[in-house]
Amino acid sequence: MDPSLCANNCGFFGSAVNKNLCSKCYNEYLKAEAITKSIQGLTLNKASPNLSDSCVTASASAGAFLKKKNRCKYCNKKVGLTGFECRCGDVFCGRHRYPEEHACKIDYKELGRQVLIKQNPMIDGDKLQWRV
């Protein structure tokens, strides 16, 4: 059985499992297929009169989500990769990472109670129906 070359003629050997593509070409094929599926999944809103305005606002909001906070909210120290993200949504340095240090408004005791209630449901049904 003679191995076949890649269907994209890149010079490597392909596999029948990978549609006669080498591993690199097959990965590129899968990425391109995923992109086309995601594009087909999008629906355009034909009721909007000006598409360029909606595209500009969409790109502006996407840019806001991509920006990573890299300074401590309390002392404005640059934290980079060593920053600690609190449940309140802010990033803090090692000194201000604890809720007591940055005056966090999140009630951790109540959050803990809610988690315990969710994980351990109380059984209220009485097993003996004849008992009053």
TrEMBL record:
SUPFAM superfamilies named among the record's database cross-references:
AN1-like Zinc finger (SSF118310), Glucocorticoid receptor-like (DNA-binding domain) (SSF57716)
Question: AN1-type domain: from which residue to which, for each copy?
Answer: 66-112
Q: Which residues form the A20-type domain?
A: 1-34
What Pfam families does this protein map onto?
zf-A20, zf-AN1
Entry annotated with the keyword NAD: no
| Gene Ontology MF annotations | DNA binding; zinc ion binding
Designated name of the protein: Zinc finger A20 and AN1 domain stress-associated protein
Organism the protein comes from: Quillaja saponaria (Soap bark tree)
